[in-house]
Design goal:
The chain is an alpha/beta fold. The protein folds into 2 domains: about 5-65, Phosphorylase Kinase, domain 1; about 70-240, Rossmann fold (3-Layer(aba) Sandwich). It is built from 6 helices and 13 strands. It has helices at about 70-80, 100-110, 125-135, 170-185, 195-200, 205-220, and strands spanning about 5-10, 15-20, 30-35, 35-40, 55-60, 60-65, 90-95, 115-120, 140-145, 160-165, 185-195, 225-230, 235-240. A 7-stranded mixed beta sheet has the order 9-8-7-10-11-13-12. The chain has a 6-stranded antiparallel β-barrel with strand order 1-2-3-4-6-5. The chain is globular, with a radius of gyration of 18 Å. The protein binds S-adenosylmethionine (SAM). S-adenosylmethionine binds near residues 72, 119, 125, 166 and 169. S-adenosylmethionine binds next to helix 2 and strand 8.
Length: about 250
C-alpha cells in the first residue's frame, strides 16, 4: 500500500511522492516521484548524508535514497534478489566496508537491534568510515583489519547471521570461506560480490562467476542465487547461499 505524501528534501523543496514498504524486504522502502522509482532506507542518523544521496522527510521520518550505481546490494535488489538475508535485527560481519556507502544502508536496515562488524584495511577509507558514518550510527563496530587474518578480530566479533563480502581480491572467495568457518552461525547466510576483473581479467565474467560458485560448493556452501549486476556494475555478480546441511 502506498499513498501520496508530501516530502521535504534536505534543500527544503517540497515534493509529492509515494512511499511504500518493499514487498519482500524488511527495512527497505520505495519512493516513487513522478515516473522515477528509487529504493530507500529509513535513516538511523537523521540530518546526515553519507555519499550525497537524496534525503526525504516524510511523516516525521527521514528516508535516504539508495543508489544502485553506488551500492551493489541495492543493484542486486533491483536485479531481482529473491531473499535478502540482511533483515531488521541481523548481526552482520561485513568485509570490505570502504568508506561506508553500503554499510550505512545496512545500518538503516538492521536498525537499533542489529549490529554490523565492518572490516576495512585501507587507512583512508577506514578514517572516512569512522568519521562520517560510525560516529552517528551506534550499530556499527568499525574494525581496522585485514580480512585475511580472520582470528585477529575474534575478540570483537561474535557469531553472526550474515556474512557480506565485497573486498575485490583475487582470492576473496577463499577469504570469505575462512571467515564463515570462524564467524557464521550454523544456519547463517552469505552475500558475496564477485568482481570478475579482480579475479581473472583474461576470462569471461560468466566463467569466473561459475568458478567462484563451484569453489563455494566444494567447500560446503550452497549457492542459491547468482545475480548479475549489470547495468549498475559491469562484470559483477552477487552470490547468495548458506552452509550445506551435513549429508
Ligand atoms: C569494492 S570496495 C567495497 C565497497 C563497499 N562494500 C560498498 O559497497 O560501499 C572494496 C573494499 O575492500 C577493502 N579490502 C580489500 N581487501 C581487503 C582485506 N583483505 N581486508 C579488509 N579490507 C579489504 C578495500 O580497501 C576496499 O575499501
Amino acid at each position: 500500500m502506498s499513498t501520496v505524501k508530501s516530502a521535504v528534501s534536505l534543500d527544503g523543496s517540497i515534493l509529492s511522492v509515494r512511499l511504500s514498504k518493499h514487498p519482500k524486504f524488511g527495512g527497505v522502502f520505495r519512493i516513487d516521484q513522478a515516473e522515477n522509482r528509487q529504493l530507500a532506507t529509513m535513516s538511523l542518523a537523521p540530518g546526515k548524508t553519507v555519499y550525497g544521496e537524496m534525503i526525504y522527510r516524510i511523516d516525521g521520518e527521514e528516508y535516504r535514497s539508495w543508489d544502485p550505481y553506488r551500492s551493489k546490494l541495492a543493484a542486486a535488489i533491483l536485479k531481482g534478489l529473491e531473499e535478502n538475508p540482511i533483515r531488521p535485527g541481523s548481526r552482520v560481519l561485513y568485509l570490505g566496508a570502504a568508506s561506508g556507502t553500503t554499510v550505512s544502508h545496512v545500518s538503516d536496515i538492521v536498525g537499533p537491534k542489529g549490529v554490523i562488524y565492518a572490516v576495512e584495511f585501507a587507512q583512508r577509507s577506514f578514517r572516512d568510515l569512522v568519521e562520517n558514518v560510525c560516529k552517528d550510527r551506534p550499530n556499527i563496530v568499525p574494525i581496522f583489519a585485514d580480512a585475511r587474518f580472520t582470528l585477529k578480530y575474534r575478540s570483537l566479533v561474535p557469531s553472526v547471521e550474515v556474512l557480506y563480502c565485497d573486498i575485490a581480491q583475487q582470492d576473496q572467495t577463499r577469504i570469505m570461506v575462512e571467515n564463515m568457518r570462524t564467524y557464521l552461525k550454523k544456519d547463517g547466510q552469505y552475500l558475496l560480490v564477485v568482481k570478475s576483473r579482480s579475479i581473472d581479467v583474461s576470462k569471461e565474467p560468466a566463467d569466473v562467476i561459475k568458478a567462484e560458485a563451484a569453489f563455494l560448493e566444494r567447500n560446503g556452501y550452497t549457492v542459491e542465487e547468482k545475480i548479475r549486476l549489470e547495468p549498475f556494475e559491469k562484470d559483477h555478480a552477487m552470490l547468495i547461499g548458506r552452509k550445506k546441511e551435513q549429508e
